[in-house]
Amino acid sequence: MFCVECGKEEIFRDGSCINCYLKTHSFTKGPEIIEIPICSHCSSFKFKNTWFSNHIGEILRKAIKNNFQISRELENVDINTECSEKKDGLSCKVFISGSIEDNNIIENHELFVRLIRTVCDVCSKRFGGYHESIVQIRADNRKLKNNELNNISIIVESIIEDLQAKGNRSLFIADIAKEHGGLDFYLSEKSAGLVIAKKIQEKYGGEIKQSSKNIGMKDGKQTYRMTYLIRLPSNEKGNFLKYNNSFFQIISFHGDKIKLIDLSKWTEITMDEKSIQKASKLGGEELIKEMILISQKEDEVQVMDQNNYEIKVIRKPKQINIDSKNVKVVSLEDKLFLIPIL
Predict the structure, then answer these.
(1) Taking residues 300-327, what's their average pLDDT?
(2) Does residue 4 carry a pLDDT above 80?
(3) 62: three-class secondary structure by DSSP
(4) Which residues, in sequence order, are bridge partners of residue 16?
(5) Is residue 67 included in any domain, yes or no?
(6) Are the C-beta atoms of 108 and 95 separated by less than 8 Å?
(7) What predicted TM-score, i.e. pTM, was given to this entire model?
(8) Which of 106, 207, 281, 325 has the least CB density, counted as fewest CB within 10 Å?
(9) What is the rounded CA–CA span in Å between residue 164 and residue 148?
């Protein structure tokens, strides 16, 4: 049989070949204009009742599927767009392709996407100071140092960024405040507060205390704001301690455990916070001095103080060869110790 329109020896439907049939029939139909809300602050897009941080191309495909009528006969449907920016939105060409009875079909549509400027749910909360949890970071009997404040801020911001990257767009830091020698982080979600508290404790030690406050009703349920107080130890990494007539330096914290190194042996031990309270705090890394290495034997080194040129002899904790021109030394109760190379 031949096509009644062009004479081609190939019939698709109604006596016509596929090309002639498509001149008077279409499998897709849609509006000339659609509207997509966009947040003026974070550039998120709204589809139906949900905001997305996706690229406009992904949201546009969702909107086209939702607004266009696509025949159920069309199989393996694929939607592509080519858009150019205009004053109020995007001028797009829409290509909808698929197959029917082993025939590949592509239909084109002109579409204008009007972008409606508004404020998304998350930015509305952010500018309103909304928060569900507070992470309070304090140190026991001392103020946090500037480097601690900076490092803690970096840790918190990194955790938030990682969670956001995993798709949690509703998470944000509402505010950061310096309070009582520490930091307060106001967070939009409760769960993030606990994650951050545990991460800070893991790195700096200390203890976590939780409390909650009833802030009203939401969807017929009582809602609570959580506060996580992390009280860091009075001791810091690098501090020197005297315990049972031995001298130690703190090298790291792991939750409620503290790792120290015995300066006379260069061996590591682990103590808990309760036990370390019995130790005498001698000072921090400000006690360390750098001296010039003059000579060394198996069990001792000769060093020279760079300030007064005095020669000192210090016992080696281990029989090691020191391959450097300078060494770090600490004087604790008139005893000199080499600082271990970690």
Answers:
(1) 90
(2) no
(3) helix
(4) 13
(5) yes
(6) yes
(7) 0.71
(8) 325
(9) 24
269 and 222: one domain?
no
| φ, ψ dihedrals at 258, nearest 5° | -125, 125
**What does the alpha-carbon distance between residue 247 and residue 287 come to, in Å, rounded to a whole number?**
13
Number of domains in the chain: 3
Do 154 and 244 fall into the same domain?
no
Does residue 252 share a domain with residue 228? no
The predicted pLDDT at position 342 comes to: 61
- When pLDDT is cut at 50, 70 and 90, the band that residue 124 belongs to is very high
**Would you say residue 258 lies in a domain?**
yes
Other CB atoms within 10 Å distance of the CB of residue 313: 12
Query: For residue 203, which of 226, 233, 183, 175 has the smallest C-alpha distance?
Result: 233
Question: Distance (Å, rounded) from C-alpha 152 to C-alpha 139?
Answer: 12
Tokens of 300: 């001792």
Quick one: tokens of 71?
Answer: 């025949």
Indicate whether 194 and 263 sit together in one domain.
no
Q: What is the distance between the alpha carbons of residues 28 and 49, in angstroms, rounded to a whole number?
A: 25
Identify the pLDDT of residue 202.
86
Give the rounded percent of residues in the chain with a pLDDT score beyond 70: 99
pLDDT at position 12 is 74
CA atoms within 13 A on the CB side of 233: 27
- Residue 203 in contact with residue 253, Cβ under 8 Å? yes
- Is 1 part of a structural domain of the chain? no
* Judgement on whether residues 117 and 133 belong to the same structural domain of the protein: no
pLDDT at 205 exceeding the cut of 90: no
Domain enclosing residue 146, as ranges: 129-232
Q: What is the mean pLDDT of residues 202-209?
A: 87
List, in order, residues 6 or more apart from 275 with CB less than 8 Å away: none
Cβ neighbours of residue 328 closer than 8 Å, sequence gap 6 or more: 288, 289, 290, 291, 338, 339
